[in-house]
Amino acid sequence: MKIGIVCYPTFGGSGVLATELGMALSDKGHEVHFITYKQPVRLALGFHPNLYFHEVKVPTYPLFDFPPYETALASAMVDVIVNQRLDVLHLHYAIPHASAAYFARQILLKTGRDIPFITTLHGTDITLVGRDPTYEPVVTFSINESDAITAVSQNLKDETLREFKIEKDIHVIPNFVDVKRFHQTDKGHFKKMLAPEGERILVHVSNFRPVKRVADVVKVFNIVRQHIPAKLLMIGDGPDRQANEDMARCMGIYQDIRYLGKQEQISEILSIADLFLLPSESESFGLSALEAMACMVPLVSTNAGGLPEINVNGKTGFLSAVGDVEDMAKHALYILSDDQRLAQFKKNAIAQARKFEKQHIIPMYEQLYSEVVTAHAAKRALSV
Length: 384
Prior knowledge:
This protein is of the alpha/beta class and 384 residues long. It has helices spanning 13-27, 69-84, 94-109, 124-127, 136-145, 154-163, 188-194, 214-225, 241-251, 266-270, 287-294, 325-336, 339-353, 358-383; strands at 2-6, 31-36, 51-55, 88-92, 117-121, 148-151, 170-172, 200-205, 230-235, 257-261, 275-278, 299-302, 317-320. It has 2 domains: 2-176 and 358-383, Rossmann fold (3-Layer(aba) Sandwich), CATH 3.40.50; 188-356, Glycogen Phosphorylase B (Rossmann fold), CATH 3.40.50.
């Protein structure tokens, strides 16, 4: 099958999932075409057969304060669909991908061509941006015009149906992890460099936006280090990073924190971690947490969004209310203060992650593609 994938090419969860999906589909023999404004980050990690990247070029003119990316994207979709003869288009993140796909479809219909498109909802496109009155009518319309809709968690499906007037079913297909790539490896020398006295290593990965509550990560760590020797690794970058570093300096704990910025080889860093902290205010699924669990790292997180669907309270880690740093710190200390207990949580984490291996999830997408393409062809035949 020839599949077009439209996504954001960044370190965010939606772009990572879309890229991992495309690579997995390519490895299974499908022809996959990425359509976005730059090469997705994880595509650079290795060669995959039958995988292509089409750059959306957005010309700049003095007339435009904000170049119309959605228009350029729709034109790129039309070009790739026609010239590569795609069977289906898969859109990740509703804004602006679903509306651009609808625009592209109207252009194609004028030429007698058409293909179905599927929209996958990832989280903030629904829980944050999509609710804005500026975007809501277009988001609702374009989602309903999709031939199929998927959500990465049951919680996100429920929230979408509660907040928007969706006229068709939403399929829940969870995020997945490649355990062949995300697994614990022997990085003892690396761990010795960062924690020479055998300190426990806590880690956080995000895009440092307000919704991730990165200040809470530092607050939890500060409590933990008052009871046991510990180090903290902060991976990622974003608008709240500088304020977070300033706060760590004011608290006098900056020397025990490493801000590593954006990293591509996340699994190598996770391999030396003892605990993953995720105090998000909203989290549709928590792909970074799942990747950590695949590397045998237990999780202390909030109970927000879809996190309870992957983090089993008291088994793979613990869940706390948003903002309750004292409770998160208590749970972190419970896991980290006993070697045998930590070892058991690590085993539980990897066992849970294996339930979300890509070999279990990719066939769900393949089946959906087949059903949508077949239904679309039957609909087209009836209309002739």
